[in-house]
Amino acid sequence: MSERKLLWTPSEKTIQQANMTKFIEFVNEKYNLDIKDYHKLHEWSVTEIENFWAAVWEFVGIISSKPYDRVVENLEAFPPETKWFVGARLNFAENLLRFKDANYAFIFKLETDDSIKMSYEELYDHVRKLHLALKNLDIKSGDRIVGYMPNTIETVIAMLAATSLGATWASCGAELGADAALDRLGQIEPVVIFTADSYIYKGNKFDLLSKARKVAEAIPNLKKMVVLPYVETDFALNENEVLWNDFTDGMKGEMEFVQLPFDHPLYIMFSSGTTGKPKCMVQGAGGVLINHLKELVLHTDLKREDRILYLTSPSWMMWNWVVSSLAVGATVALYDGNPLYPSSESVFKFIQDERITIFGCSASYIHTLKKLGAEPGKKFDLSSLREISQTGSALSEEGFEYVYEHIKKDLHFNSISGGTDINGCFAAGSPTLPVYSGELQSLALGMKVKAYDYDMNPIYDEQGELVCELPSPSMPLYFWNDPDNEKYMNAYFNFFPNRKVWRHGDYVLIHKDTGGITFYGRSDAVLKPSGVRIGTAEIYNIVEEMPEIVDSLAIGKLVDGDQKIILFVQLAEGVELTDELKNRIKSELRSRASPRHVPSEIVQVPDIPYTFSGKKVESAVTNILNGRPVTNRGALRNPESLTFFEEYAR
């Protein structure tokens, strides 16, 4: 482990004004404590779980029509047995729409277009009209409503209108291919789909409506597809399709937020589909709300006067995360398209022009800027920018240093890590702590995170498996179509025998001296190029349809702080891996899945490793390619197949 460099220390003024400091003062007074710093606060938050979450509820101002009877039941059991804020009734959308004034709710930008702004008053009215239009369709609590949309204001409006009625929301970004979108949205049988005619990427127009129609045709009992004219205004509609404005036109009446239990299903998020179709993770309204507000208000130090921008898409949980900023009354900036178009520094002009205060991005974005030699700090007025948040994959120490050297010397670099699974963070920043290169500042409040060795011992200053020893409110309620919770248990709780802890699938090192945490990438088969979760099965399903390919194996290799996908292919007898075949493989993956699914390298291999039960062994090859030992050779049907990968790695 290299020496970590101190990059930033918060000023006394920054510490004094931080929401985290105010929260410490709040809990000290409420519970007669004498907590002095973040580390003591974290220790208290994971030993006094009920008091901690009760304090968060009050501090962030959760709106509920009925108070809770008890903070938590069955804490030691983990979900799905654990129940949070029992007896409370609330509505997620009502909490995000608590402001109805002239302050900006949104600033929207599409690549080279001018920015568009929407006030909180306007937002409320747009949601109200769509709420009433959906109500006319007899949308009921628990119905699924989905978006297959670009990153527009309307996507958020659709989510808010759906959840105001108690419907459950799921979404895919426009960049996903029809097959990948159907693998996700088709499983949950939505009654309404929101989509757009097209989307723009790098100045080029791409058709979305035909992809959405392919999804819609495969879904029974679909009541309506609502189409936003996003790029074009003149296009024909099919039966059961309606333009957005026609759908909401003339809607009169007030919005009535349906009051529901804390654990009412709010979002369905999708796993990466490593061993088949993506798993559908059902998350509760109250759990997502209180966890997001904990992370936004305390860890991100978000305030009403802030303008927060995250480079994301409706496919990624960071979209769900950042739109919860509406509950704080901050301005959410949405950027749709390629953040490197028309130049590598386009986003920083947006930050300058719109006075963005908090900017979020992926590790790969920062590494790309570094490789391009971009120096936004020299070219733009970034005086408004006080924080950069980064997530998606592990950022190298050089990436941390680039931020301070070439973007801005004095800001809070808030590197965070968690997962779609919990719609939040296991490790997060604090504006009251120093920043060291390559190190996330702290474990997130209320998250009892440890690094375990394979004997289930907590370890420090060496790599181990990230585990969480206690539940948190935003852990999934259950998986869709998993009545016995078998998929749920296998996903998180069956890795360590005889010990019920959440094992997340990350290799981490917890620093004993600072309490910070360094991430070293995935310990499972989930691919995360540019921070976007991709299931290997999505690649296999397309590639192995090709007659030239007998078998395949997709592996993520850590390179410069990001993951690149290497696709190993076993070819049919007499077939050669020509450039033409490689290009066809890439073209199929790009068109049927997404550009993120396209491998950096395609390599011919004599054999693919399998277990005795007939499962591909991705973990062993992942370990080989990333310089880690292989621990499960005895479970392989053909262990000699690993020889090729070992030679390739050398």
Question: How is this structure best described in words?
Answer:
The structure is a single chain. With 650 residues, the chain is an alpha/beta fold. The chain folds into 3 domains: 6-62 and 285-521, ANL, N-terminal domain (Rossmann fold, 3-Layer(aba) Sandwich); 104-258, Rossmann fold (3-Layer(aba) Sandwich); 534-649, GMP Synthetase, Chain A, domain 3 (2-Layer Sandwich). It contains 21 helices and 33 strands. The strands form 10 sheets. A 7-stranded mixed sheet has the order 6-5-18-17-19-20-21, with helices on both faces. Strands 8-7-9-12-13 form a 5-stranded parallel sheet, with helices on both faces. Helix 7 (153-164) links the parallel strand 7 (144-149) and strand 8. Helix 2 (19-31) crosses helix 4. The mean pLDDT is 93.
- Helix count, DSSP H or I runs of 4 or more residues: 21
| Main sheet characteristics | 7 strands, mixed
Give the full name of the CATH homologous superfamily of the largest domain. ANL, N-terminal domain
Roughly how many Å is the radius of gyration?
24 Å
What is the number of strand segments?
A: 33
Instruction: Write down the CATH topology of the largest domain.
Output: Rossmann fold
**Roughly what percent helix?**
25-40%
User: Class by helix and strand content?
Assistant: alpha/beta
Q: What is the annotated CATH architecture of the largest domain? A: 3-Layer(aba) Sandwich
Strand order of the largest sheet: 6-5-18-17-19-20-21
